[in-house]
Specification:
By secondary structure, this protein is an alpha+beta fold. The chain contains 12 helices and 18 strands. The chain has a 7-stranded mixed beta sheet with strand order 15-13-14-12-16-17-18, with helices on both faces. A 6-stranded antiparallel beta sheet has the order 1-11-2-3-5-6, with helices on both faces.
């Protein structure tokens, strides 16, 4: 028998594995090699578990199901409350959990993987799919397989525990002493220009990505408990409607830390909604006053009350942080990508350094949800970070993963270390801004 080559890409395998924990996939059955028959499937897969079964059609759809139960030819239904069907589109997995666990899997001799009466691959020992979305799994057939029931391939993978995690590709010290060291570094930071007392960082991102939550989380670390000053939450439209500048204090009533986080209205992909790209230039140049009320239909103009006509260096933005939800990188709307590209061009023209805050990493990867210290051991998160690096147009070294505080009541050491490390990166980028400014001024003086 020839060597089995997986039709699933490495990225697709990681996407599936991200739903199952710290696991890897081993190919057991490949219909174009072993045969499109129930007998061939059972010969390769009986008594093996858990498994992921995958169907492919000529329309380009990739779909299938997961079960923890071993296959057999008993003719009986087998209970599995963890079984699910799925569709894979553009790097995102759409999951359809079983609705009747008692009928999750049926052990039929003359067919391939048989998920209840809902989805059967290699049905009747033919290269076809049986599909019934109204049975024991609810799904949209057009989304899952495009209503193309002819199979070009069927594969079944054994899900194996990954005995050894990938080596961390960034080194982080997860210790209390490190948190203290980072906090001290932040407290003692001084911008290179003596006329500026605080690094001014602009947070830009899609609605619900976690801009306001990032400020609340940094504030929480220095308060010593979870707190919420900036309005944050989940909403289809931006909860931030004003331009707000937030200064983090060193504890309750303490002195302001050397960073100001500027919060903006969320970006939206539709025209005339969310933050206007033209308002960005005014913010970057320091013209926009605190509490300015955004109006997506009309960009800021010089006659607005509080408009700074001659902003100082302390009013300008020194670093831009794009706040992006790790769960939505692969499905970022094209219109939003275009908006980010337009913003990036404006930021580049002004010589302002840019980084990405990748939020909700725990929701994107179960391995990270289990233990935040796995953040740089997760190949899946690394792929997401590379993807966002490409989409936003910044080097991978400028992508910083964080987990904001949301439902927690108490602080977490590992969460704090990621958040504080992100602030340190912002300071490094602020230093780069002043270096660039100094070079530009020097160049101008030389020309004069």
């Amino acid at each position: 028998m020839s060597t089995l080559n997986s039709l699933l890409s490495k990225n697709q395998q990681r996407t599936i594995c991200s739903q199952l924990g710290s696991v890897k996939l081993k190919l057991l059955y490949k219909a174009t090699v072993h045969g499109f028959t129930g007998a061939a499937f059972h010969q390769q897969c009986d008594n093996q578990s858990p498994t992921v079964s995958v169907g492919y059609n000529a329309s380009g759809y990739v779909f299938g199901g997961y079960t923890k139960q071993p296959f057999s030819q008993s003719g009986q239904y087998v209970n599995d409350d963890q079984a699910f069907l799925f569709g894979l589109t553009g790097g995102k997995l759409q999951k359809y959990p079983v609705t009747s666990a008692a009928h999750a899997i049926r052990m039929i001799a003359n067919a391939g993987p048989y998920f209840g009466e809902s989805l059967v691959l290699v049905n009747g020992s033919q290269p076809v799919t049986y599909s019934n979305p109204q049975s024991y799994y609810k799904f949209n057939p057009a989304e899952m397989h495009g209503n193309d029931l002819n199979l070009t391939e069927c594969e079944v993978y054994l899900v194996e525990e990954s005995t050894e995690l990938e080596k961390p590709w960034r080194n982080v010290i997860w210790e209390t002493g490190k948190r203290k060291e980072l906090m001290e570094s932040i407290k003692n930071y001084k911008p290179p220009d003596s006329s500026v007392s605080q690094a001014r960082v602009l947070l830009i991102g899609q609605v619900g990505a976690g801009k306001s939550s990032f400020f609340n989380s940094i504030n929480s670390v220095f308060r010593g408990h979870v707190t919420s000053q900036a309005i944050s939450g989940s909403s289809a439209t931006s909860l931030t409607t004003q331009f707000r500048t937030y200064s983090v204090r060193d504890g309750q009533g303490g002195k302001p830390l050397p960073i100001t986080l500027c919060d903006t209205m969320g970006l939206e992909d539709s025209k005339g909604a969310g933050l206007d790209v033209n308002d960005i230039s005014s913010i970057l140049k320091g013209h926009v006053p605190d509490f300015y009320q955004f109006n997506p239909a009309a960009p800021l103009h010089a006659e607005v009350q509080g408009y700074r006509k001659s902003p100082g260096l302390k009013d300008k933005i020194h670093c831009v942080a794009y706040v992006i939800d790790a769960c939505k990188v692969s499905i970022m709307p094209t219109k939003l990508e275009e908006k980010l590209e337009a913003i990036r061009r404006k930021v580049n023209l002004l010589g302002i350094p840019q980084l990405v805050l990748l939020t909700k990493v725990d929701e994107a990867c179960p391995l990270v949800k289990e233990d935040l210290r796995n953040i740089y051991k997760s190949g899946y998160i690394q792929d997401i970070m590379q993807g966002v690096s490409t989409k936003v147009g910044v080097p991978l070294s400028c992508v910083v993963p964080v987990k904001n505080y949301s439902g927690e009541l108490e602080l977490d050491l590992n969460c704090d270390i990621l958040l504080l490390s992100a602030v340190i990166q912002m300071f490094r980028f602020t230093d780069n801004y002043f270096d660039e400014l100094s070079d530009r001024l020097g160049s101008t003086e030389l020309k004069d």
